[in-house]
Amino acid sequence: DAKTTQPNSMESNEEEPVHLPCNHSTISGTDYIHWYRQLPSQGPEYVIHGLTSNVNNRMASLAIAEDRKSSTLILHRATLRDAAVYYCILRPLNNAGNMLTFGGGTRLMVKP
Amino acid sequence: DTGVSQDPRHKITKRGQNVTFRCDPISEHNRLYWYRQTLGQGPEFLTYFQNEAQLEKSRLLSDRFSAERPKGSFSTLEIQRTEQGDSAMYLCASSSQGATGELFFGEGSRLTVL
Lengths: 112, 114
Known about the structure:
The complex is a heterodimer of chains A (112) and B (114). In chain A, 0% of the residues lie in helices and 46% in strands. With 112 residues, chain A is mainly beta. In chain A, the strands form 2 sheets. Chain A has a 5-stranded mixed beta sheet, with no helix packed on it. Chain A has a 4-stranded antiparallel beta sheet with strand order 2-7-6-5, with no helix packed on it. Chain B is built from no helices and 11 strands. In chain B, strands 2, 4, 5, 6, 9, 10 and 11 form a 7-stranded mixed beta sheet that branches. A 4-stranded antiparallel beta sheet of chain B has the order 1-3-8-7, with no helix packed on it. Chain B starts with a strand and ends with a strand. The model of chain B has no long low-confidence stretch (mean pLDDT 93). The interface between A and B is medium-sized, with 25 and 27 residues.
């Protein structure tokens, strides 16, 4: 499976936007880009996913580079509750079992 | 629906004992997954069920591990002759069928092997 590269950690101030980068230079044409996050002492939760076009939902926005070799998760106004580990995951369309392969993720710290 | 539930949330056992974890998925979900997570690492895939059929197992799932989903609803993960290296968070997730179906995770069962 194609791999992703994320910074180990990032810091943000509360109520400011946060841009979490992910590199996936070996992405194939049928790989979906998924983001999950894991709050302390909880299981991961789905954030957003996309294929080629930018996506928005109530939690975040996903900006996908034109060549699809990188993407950015955007939290428009970080809150203290957004402090979590964020995982960028490539999910092949032919992944019949829908399994997710997690990397190390980015630990986001939000300062008040 | 209360989401994916796991039991027990915490288990402390002595090396060599057997332990069993239970997962109740979201009721209409036909896919169920087990993951293991150690401190500071991302979750690692262990095994996956579609209905009652176990369709994939990771090489991480040694002979001491067995998972079942007898009626396609709840699932159990048993670890026999536990070792200290089995200490981890065991996460269960469920999803409906579909290539991009969102996985819903439980809060996990934390195992400590003394």
